[in-house]
Design brief:
mainly alpha
């Protein structure tokens, strides 16, 4: 009896129904592969293939910029042909592109293959968003929080696995990572076969084909989403450089930053995110995230003005606060991103959000390493104020967006549930 109860609790932790569990497992497998590859890909192309770092960076930049173009059309295709079908096709293309990377010996080949991969990734990301929306309908906030928990856990496990290849530093070890990522794409696509085929929802006759681009509140949210997304590069790029060059903290704190950030998100995402259900909740959570970043950024700046041991403790405390902000931010973006998008065009709207986020990530290195790092402590303080200002726009944006939704009721209408007439 005890065993039965335990297994029931484990099933509930992984999802409340079969479709949720399938999508969580598929996403987990995919992110393990991402963690394997992303951690060591640059080292493979520079140390093993022998391409100059500048060429690798240029190839990946070109691929990322071209990939931005595919999100909205890919999401529209998912709305019209069904998100599961489009996502499976995108995963199949990514599996083939990743497998082809083992043959790369030149900059041009890397650029072409990486571009194909990024185009497929943008299409798949938009379809994934639409699929998440269709699968998680009973308790959508809880499902999305669980999904992100397992996604983070998958990245952590994949990154840990990549550490062995980096330590071995051999061609065969790196090839295992590339093939492992390709297999993860293929396995993810096969797992999606276990999901039902979600039929496209009819488009209201009064709405244009590219409704997302004409939706001013949502376009504004996309810009804010991309701006707030700088917080990810703050942890992965800016803080490690700051610790290494401007503080007396021991070098292990650089590794601790990633471990603590991932651990906090894995442990607390479901507890916090499951409570952020409606667009109104999302607007408030977006503001809370900005305030938490306003606290964490000055804490990070202070590490340059304290002794080594104190700097290490301050880094740990700062990254804990920042990770709480990340949980609130991601949960807010789920609630607003899904809650303000119409049911029939979830893929297109998620594609627009992906465009905003990826554009922000492309600009993040230049902004953080020049403006913020160049200004030192003042730069950190300005960064915290910037995050707080962006977050403060959450509640008024939600009110604007909710007010302009056609046929939408109150701001507290649960974003995870379809209208009664749509279910009839």
């Amino acid at each position: 009896m005890t065993k039965g109860r335990a297994s029931g609790r484990m099933a509930t932790m992984a999802g409340s129904n079969r479709a949720e569990r399938v999508l969580i497992l598929a996403s987990f497998v995919n992110r393990v592969g991402n963690g394997l590859f992303n951690t060591a890909s640059a080292l493979y192309f520079t140390l093993v293939v022998g391409l100059p770092a500048a060429q690798v960076g240029a190839a990946l930049t070109v691929a990322g910029l071209v990939g931005l173009l595919a999100g909205i059309p890919g999401g529209h295709l998912a709305d019209r042909r069904g998100p599961r079908t489009v996502m499976m096709l995108a995963l199949a293309v990514q599996a083939l592109a990743m497998s082809a990377l083992v043959l790369v010996e030149s900059w041009s080949a890397l650029t072409v293959i990486a571009t194909v991969d990024q185009l497929a990734a943008a299409v798949g990301g938009a379809a994934w968003g639409a699929l998440v929306r269709r699968v998680g309908t009973d308790r959508p906030a809880l499902f999305r929080a669980k999904l992100r928990t397992y996604v983070n856990l998958g990245v952590v496990l994949g990154t840990a696995g990549a550490g062995f290849a980096v330590a071995a530093n051999s061609r065969s070890a790196y090839l295992v990572l590339i093939v492992g990522n390709a297999v993860s794409f293929a396995l993810c696509a096969l797992l999606l076969l276990l999901l039902p085929h979600y039929e496209p929802l009819p488009r209201p006759p009064q709405q244009g084909r590219w409704a997302a681009l004409a939706d001013r509140p949502f376009v504004t949210f996309t810009v804010l989403y991309g701006a707030m997304g700088l917080q990810y590069a703050t942890v992965s790029l800016l803080l490690p450089i700051w610790i290494s060059e401007h503080t007396e903290a021991p070098r292990w704190t650089v590794v601790a930053v990633s471990a603590i950030s991932a651990g906090v998100c894995v442990l607390l995402q479901t507890r916090i995110g499951s409570r952020i259900e409606t667009p109104r909740d999302g607007g408030r959570a977006f503001r809370t995230a900005g305030l938490l970043f306003l606290i964490s950024c000055p804490m990070m700046a202070l590490t340059a003005h304290t002794p080594g041991w104190a700097a290490a403790l301050l880094v740990v405390a700062a990254i804990f606060v920042h990770s709480l902000g990340e949980i609130w931010e991601s949960s807010a973006c789920f609630a607003l991103g899904f809650g303000l998008a119409p049911e029939h065009a979830q893929g297109q709207y998620q594609g627009l959000l992906g465009l905003g986020f990826n554009a922000g990530q492309a600009l993040a290195p230049a902004i953080l390493t020049t403006v913020v790092l160049g200004a030192g402590t003042t730069g950190w303080l300005l960064l915290g104020v910037f995050f707080a200002a962006v977050g403060a726009a959450g509640p008024p944006l939600e009110r604007w967006g909710t007010r302009t939704r056609p046929g939408r009721g109150t701001a507290d209408a649960e974003p995870g549930r379809e209208p009664e007439e749509a279910r009839a």
